[in-house]
Amino acid sequence: MMEGRDAPARAGATLLSRILEMRDFAPRLVSALVLAGAALGALWRGGDFFVVFWLVAALAVQWEWQTLIHAPRLAVRLVMGFAITTALAFAARHRAFDVAGYALISGVFAMAWLAGPGKRAWGAFGIVYAGALVMSVVALRLSLNGFEAIIWLFAVVWGTDVGAYFGGRLIGGPKLWPRVSPSKTWSGFLIGVTTGAVAGLVALRMVGGLAPGSMLGVVAMGYACAVISQGGDLFESGIKRHFRAKDSGSLIPGHGGFMDRLDGFIAAAVFAAVVGVTRVGPLEVAIGVLRW
After folding, report:
1. Cα dihedral across residues 292, 228, 48, 204: positive or negative
2. pLDDT tens-digit series, residues 106-156
3. What is the C-alpha separation between 122 and 112, in angstroms, rounded?
4. Neighbouring C-beta atoms of residue 46, cutoff 10 Å
5. Which of these, 27, 43, 111, 249, could form a disulfide with 64 (CB 3.0-4.6 Å)?
6. What's the pLDDT tens digit per position in 144-193?
7. Is the dihedral of CA 288, 39, 225, 199 positive or negative?
8. Where are the domains of the chain?
9. Angle at which helices 146-170 and 120-142 pack, to 10 degrees?
């Protein structure tokens, strides 16, 4: 009987200990709010301001990636990476996707050569990783219903992150993939993807971007993007573990680097852009994401 009476107390103590473990929450929250505010401001301004904002983010990702892989000729690789990433951003801005394709291919081969033996694939993928981020968000934003598509994407990714964080910390349970990311749990994953899909639907309704008859398609896309977002997070964790790095950088308090903050968003944005292009072509990408 005493054990039964003590069970709620033990459960409460366990929950309290998990809450106390979230000491990193305050800096994470402040950093997330600042970055979210900046991203929403750039989205509202649109046009060249939006392109430059995401170009800066992609350049930061390029910097962190090329530094992380410890390949030779770092300075030359950074110059090359910045030049190609900038070219990709402005090609996407002017919808010159053929030019973007040539620039991307040229950058991949040049970076592979510069990175040297044993690091060629790593160096080349840095071009793809940062370039795909800026091209996908610019293509989405500049198409019809682009504002609504980016709002939806923000809500899905941010909702997934928040749900996964609190679900994993407060509920715990079996680990999702302990060899790659020891802190992630199945409870966090499931709560995160559900929260992300619901948040995306709510945000889309709030901005009037939910087309008639598209709710099921949007919810399915929300779940898919939320899962892809978690996959992007695990991918970046695996890269850091491979190179024995705790964070991709130290530019953002509570988050490490830009790659640490944008890993899930990069994966989800690229996935959404690929779905949109596959369905309706490269000029109206957001339509292919939001209308079903």
Report:
1. positive
2. 999 999 999 999 999 999 999 999 999 999 999 999 999 999 999 999 999
3. 8
4. 14
5. 249
6. 999 999 999 999 999 999 999 888 888 878 898 888 888 889 999 999 99
7. negative
8. 24-290
9. 120
CB contact at 8 A, 261 and 38: no
What sign does the dihedral 206-210-216-220 (CA atoms) show? negative
72: tokens are 């030779």
Tokens coding 244: 């024995």
For the entire predicted model, the pTM comes to 0.89
Cα dihedral 118, 121, 126, 132 in deg (nearest 10): -170
Residues contacting 128, CB < 8 A, separation 6+? 104, 108
Of the candidates 77, 31, 36, the one whose C-alpha atom is nearest the C-alpha of residue 53 is 36
Using N-to-C axis directions, what is the helix angle for 120-142 and 97-115, rounded to 10°? Answer: 160
